[in-house]
Design a protein that fits this description.
With 138 residues, this protein is mainly α. The protein contains four helices and no strands. α1 packs antiparallel against α2.
Length: 138
């Protein structure tokens, strides 16, 4: 049982890290969610793996499941939901601002500084985004 849970944590962690390293926002958000699932399973397994045990100790109970990891997992679920919602809103704002969901910060040929032919040597003029769309240099 422990080997199965440890393997599941390893697979979830590696899949989450792989998706976080992608260049689009949607796989990154899915990777963060999968990584939070791996952390939840890890936190849950820290209390020991016991089957059919009550979570609260009583006078007639000999063995019980530790309730602390269960409480930590419930808290982590709420935090990961909020984190995912925030990441989706930031990604949506970035998409609406740039019209792309790429994460890399490399500039395209159209976004680089273009020298103005009438400018002094060594001084470069930038193109405005609205002027770029209209095809006019500033």
């Amino acid at each position: 049982m422990e080997l199965l849970v440890a393997s599941a944590i390893g697979v979830l962690t590696s899949a989450g890290l792989y998706l976080i390293l992608r260049l689009r926002t949607f796989p990154v958000i899915i990777g963060l969610s999968i990584l939070s699932y791996a952390v939840n399973v890890f936190l849950f397994s820290t209390g020991g793996l016991s089957l059919n045990q009550p979570p609260i100790y009583g006078p007639e109970v000999e063995n019980y499941a530790d309730p602390l990891p269960q409480a930590l997992v419930l808290t982590a679920i709420v935090i990961s939901f909020g984190m995912t919602a925030l990441a989706v809103l930031i990604a949506l704002g970035g998409f609406l601002e740039t019209d792309t969901d790429r994460i890399d910060m490399a500039l395209d040929e159209d976004d680089r500084d273009v020298p103005d032919p009438g400018a002094q040597p060594g001084v470069e003029a930038k193109r405005d985004r609205s002027a770029q769309e209209a095809g006019v240099l500033q």
